Amino acid sequence: MRKKYDDIKALFEENDRDVIIDTARKQEALQSVCTKNASMKNTAGSRWQLVKGQLLYMNKNILCFHLAACMGMVLLVWTNWCDIQAWEQYSMICSGVLGALSVLEVGSMFFSGMTELEASCYFNVRQLTAFQMTYSGILSLAALLLSTVFASIRLERNILMTGIYILVPFVTTECVCLAVMLTEIGRRNLLVLIAAGIFSAFFWSILASMPRLYEASALVFWIAALVAGMGIFVLQMKWFFEILDKGEIVCAD
Amino acid sequence: MIHQKNRQDCVQSAVEMYYEDVYRFCRYYTGNSTDSCDITQEVFLRYMKYMDSCGHKNLKAYLMMIARNLCCDYFRRQSEQREKLLSFDMLEDTAEGGCLGTVRTIDNCDSELYLQELLQSISQEQREVVILRIHDGLKFHEIAKITGCRLSTVKSRFRLGIASIKKKIGGNYA
């Protein structure tokens, strides 16, 4: 059966016959493949060097901020600086800030242009992103856990309930910031990401000031919010890595 | 992990089999023969680099996906350097006095230039779908996977691209 685009196909075929493949360039491609293969053999033995290189080029400023925020949150409870009402409010804000910093740390790779070095320095962006997300997540969660444990000891809060309350702003702020990171504008402008983080933390501080928000009857709402937030976060991560693999986020070289 | 020797053999046979296809795709897509050679070479280097981690059923489609991504980077770089603006101006100049602006037909026109002008006259998204479908004979679902779009989007782009080319050639396509 004759297709409606047969004439365009014929044009392609006609043109293909005229296009002369440069055999010298083809041989050059083959040669470069062989050379690269040999060099890959050499680099395989120095994997630690690659990890060291990745650690060296990481943006450590946000990591310092992150560490300071984590320590501040733990010290807030440890030093008995605030009463229980104030702690509830501060912990919500701190939790939101930690969530924003966790995403900001991953975002720093794209803002600093570090990913552009992938080809020349044998960086693996996917690996590095996963690594940064893991350690920044662990750092934040460790701070939240410690804070929750101290709150349960010193302020006599129910540990499970407190843990759930405190995790919700963390997860939702991460979702908001990651949603920003998934947009082209958000990736290109650090301020947009920071603004999203501040907005989310501000939102939670307002919510935390509402009375009777932490009563046991509201626990169902908090659990539902946490589950929904985690679900969205997982989907966002999947999407993020998908577009990372496709090279839409990172310039492939 | 693929053995070093096997890896080389795999990529070498891929170069032997698909170099022409990848090169032609890049050439039609970018419209630049010199840069297409560089991109084609880079395609096989990338293939070798990621062949351990990437499972692929259709090698040609996989190579085309790498080629398409590298071409997108090429366009992005071009855009950043504002060279694309220059080439667009040049293309417009050519189109005005060249094949598309006049009553020139396939028979009396240099086919390569004519085809290039037709392809450059449609959007980048439509162009990649048209080339992959008509020239490389890939299925719509394979193109959807390569471009990361939905099947309906790919079909729509194809239809619009073909309609636009047909309009310029002088035929009808509904």
Describe what you observe in this structure.
- Chain A has two domains: 35 residues, no CATH class; 197 residues, no CATH class.
- Helices cover 79% and strands 0% of the residues of chain A.
- In chain A, helix 4 runs parallel beside helix 7 and helix 5 packs antiparallel against helix 7.
- In chain B, helix 2 packs across helix 3.
- Chain B has a domain of 81 residues: RNA polymerase sigma factor, region 2, helix turn helix motif (Rna Polymerase Sigma Factor, Chain: A), CATH 1.10.1740.10.
- Chain B is an all-alpha fold and 174 residues long.
- At the A-B interface, helix 1 and helix 2 of A face helix 1, helix 2, helix 3, helix 5 and helix 6 of B.
Count of DSSP strands of chain B: 0
Which CATH first-tier class of one domain in chain B would you pick? Mainly Alpha
Give the H and E element order of chain B. Answer: HHHHHHHH
Helix content of chain B: over 70%
Quick one: overall form of chain A? elongated
Determine Rg of chain B (CA atoms, Å). 17 Å
